[in-house]
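Example 3.2
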Amino acid sequence: MVAGLSAWRLLNTPTDSSALRTLRIGLVVAAILAPLQILVGDMHGLNTMKHQPAKIAAVEALWQSGKGVPLVLFAIPNAQTQHNDYAIEVPKLASLILIHDLDGEVQGLDAFKQNTPPVAPVFFAFRLMVALGMCMLLISWAGVWLTRKKHPPRWLLWIFACFTFSGWLATLCGWMVTEIGRQPWLVTGVLRTADAVGKMSEASLGSSLTGYVLTYTGMLLAYMVVITHMAGKGSSVEARSPTDKS
């Protein structure tokens, strides 16, 4: 986000040396932390495999248990047929990632009967999260290299700017995987979500959700207004001549 905001500033005020330094700092920090985040994510996945295996089965859209399970890069999970339509797979890679064994056995959704989450939202949210993470990693590494000795070109600044909210979106996707993926349990194997539902009307839930949506929409609009104002102010200052006293 720091790099993205700095890029927005440089697009409108290319001579802002402070924004350029901030951009480079943001890129260096991202280049260091992004691979560490991927490592932590892998460790968390192994922990989830141990304690919430049904969630992992949904993440991988694995309908049947088996050995040497392929990694599904893309598919359209079909809950009715319990099959993945239009699947693009890498043979045995899921077993290697999850079990660290090419022929490792992974439990599918069939092993959990009715205690399984909806597959499609978990499957797609996880892949979007991973895709954003890999893009941020590649962009930060490329950015560090391309800005090490020179001012970044405008096309690169536009890429940084477009990724301003990528971290937030990746976090949102991860939250969806966490919360939807553990259904129908609130505490896996102990407490079902249905047994913990409070006495609140649909109208109350709807108004609460609407309030959250309106609040965050207002915050986003306010952010865009401030950024636009700052960009316009920077451009007008840049356009003034040194003798302009107005």
